[in-house]
Amino acid sequence: MSPRRPSPDRAPNQMDVARAAGVSAQTVSRVLAGHPNVRPDTAHRVHAAIDSLGYRIHAAAASLASGRTRIIGMIVVSNDRYASAALGAGVETTAAANGYTVTTASVSDHASTSAFLEAFDRLERQGAEGVVLNVPVELDSPEMQLRTERTPSTRSQVASLQPDAPLVVDQHVIGRLAVEHLLDLGHRTVWHVGGDEYWIEGRHRREAWEQVLHERGIEPPPLIPGEWTPESGYRAGRTIAAIPDATAVFVSSDEMAFGLIRALHEAGRRVPEDVSVVSVDDIALAAYASPALTTVRQPFEEMGRAAAQRLISHIEGTDAGDEPDLHPELIIRSSTAAPLAR
Amino acid sequence: MSPRRPSPDRAPNQMDVARAAGVSAQTVSRVLAGHPNVRPDTAHRVHAAIDSLGYRIHAAAASLASGRTRIIGMIVVSNDRYASAALGAGVETTAAANGYTVTTASVSDHASTSAFLEAFDRLERQGAEGVVLNVPVELDSPEMQLRTERTPSTRSQVASLQPDAPLVVDQHVIGRLAVEHLLDLGHRTVWHVGGDEYWIEGRHRREAWEQVLHERGIEPPPLIPGEWTPESGYRAGRTIAAIPDATAVFVSSDEMAFGLIRALHEAGRRVPEDVSVVSVDDIALAAYASPALTTVRQPFEEMGRAAAQRLISHIEGTDAGDEPDLHPELIIRSSTAAPLAR
DNA sequence: TTGTAAGCGTTATCAG
DNA sequence: CTGATAACGCTTACAA
């Protein structure tokens, strides 16, 4: 007797379909793979058998035999931020369109490097053929290097891991657009409420802010720290409100801008008459803030699509084709204006 | 000669580890599974070999042999809404904590029933042992019935698919809390800006609104349609602003409330002095709207956790334990007030 | 155009 | 406590 349970009601497999269709299992496999050299009549009988038995291919068996999983992994931090979600949607869409499945590994915010390594390992174990790193941290540790060499990986937000590849979205450009807009409006200097410095994005935007000010011969005022949340923006707003000659602020996210503006209003400072505010992201609610936010838009969903496309092309060894031009865009609404004459 | 490529540099497998450790492959498997009956000394040698070879278990092979994948599928609509993202994070967290992996299948908003069936099939093909349906539509079609019988499934937002199981979050309660709050404040009637009726959530909240008004002998005013977006809220706001005696509005989401309030302000109607507004969700920005939103909070992440927990318990045949009490909560802020005396 | 045979890496069963 | 062996369901290579 078999050492296995006889399982009289197991799911049908290719052999069952083959028997029902009067062909070999191999022919069933060929039909499933859309192999050209199958007589239409045969293919038809096979499809009929598949439908009548309710057969479905067993992905694990297929991967084991073929060595391919068509799984893309995605490492995500703090899934509840708008940006991560939109990015993920883009990755999903492109993956599905190319016959790939996405498996997600979440990592908590401010997680240690080892948490990222573990997440990566989880995905590799599942057989991910590539990984989209939708993450904030620098990934230059030797251990991560090891993994990204073994499994092709792409950063979705800031830059590819391949040093020579073009940036996906240059966060320095974002900072530059914001700060130059305020300066061009006539403000004498620009204060900055930073994003969490744990995130590369936050660091790059701050660097751009410093750089632009230096270029114009302005010594940057002290950085006001934030951590992406509206609460932290509110706290920063109270700080700003206490600085009488602060007339222009570059905040590193729309969500923080909501908190910041609230604090400014409570302190009796009008936006944009007394203080101009530029933020980053252009989330759906940005246009409905009071006042509507001037912000630097990031095309999140397209960024996700581009990351997935690049990864899939790499996996399949095909040319990625033209990568879309993912430039950030300054959207001018009502939270910025020229400073009042004094 | 073998019909396969000889692959001199293939990834190490259990046999390689076994050789390196001087044991059989079976013992390696036992060590990996944490089987109790292994001599500590042997286990130690195996672990050493694993580390030195950089061995990782091959999930596809393991599933094929064991018949288990430890994969949970999740069907998601419009991943970029805050609620879906937070829910998904909860599912992820709980799955990971129990050694499960989450595979997502996205479906576009207003997708046809067949799109949902296809998504379900995709997940089954991947070997999902259960599916979290984070979706808006009713799932009583015979085809879906077929699938949910084969693969255990749970709705994360509204109710379990098992008719006798308790609701996860009762959307009628949400509508009731909102409408009764306004009525108790002294408003004579309450207008409703609905969510998209394609979503069960939207329908249930509307039903609750109608029911509460009827209970108090009030004939509900015409429903003002919305579709979750701030833009649709803005449009609804212009409608409301044109109705002089509308003093209280129940909007089906915070995002719509932002748009609604903006339209009201532009029309010169003050919130809450002229019009009180209650919404649903309590997203992070709700407290930073102008005015801060009175809203009915939904514990999204916990809802996701509960859904995953229930599913996993079902898969493993264990008792789900006490399900957390997932009640919505009315958060009173500044967008509601008693009507002005006229 | 179709069929046969081998093997993918793991786990379950049974024997020792 | 450990090992040998037989599946799991599919795809690749080759033969017919």
UniProtKB/TrEMBL annotation, chains A, B:
Q: Which sequence ranges are marked TM in the entry?
A: none
Does the keyword Zinc belong to this entry? no
Q: Which residues form the HTH lacI-type domain?
A: 12-66
What's in the keyword line of the UniProt record?
DNA-binding, Transcription, Transcription regulation
CDD domains referenced in this protein's UniProt entry, alphabetically: HTH_LacI, PBP1_LacI
Q: Name one Pfam family in it.
A: Peripla_BP_3
Which superkingdom?
A: Bacteria
**InterPro entries for the chain:** HTH_LacI, LacI/GalR-like_sensor, Lambda_DNA-bd_dom_sf, Peripla_BP_I
Q: Which GO terms describe its molecular function?
A: DNA binding
Q: What is this protein called?
A: LacI family DNA-binding transcriptional regulator
Q: Which organism is it from?
A: Microbacterium commune
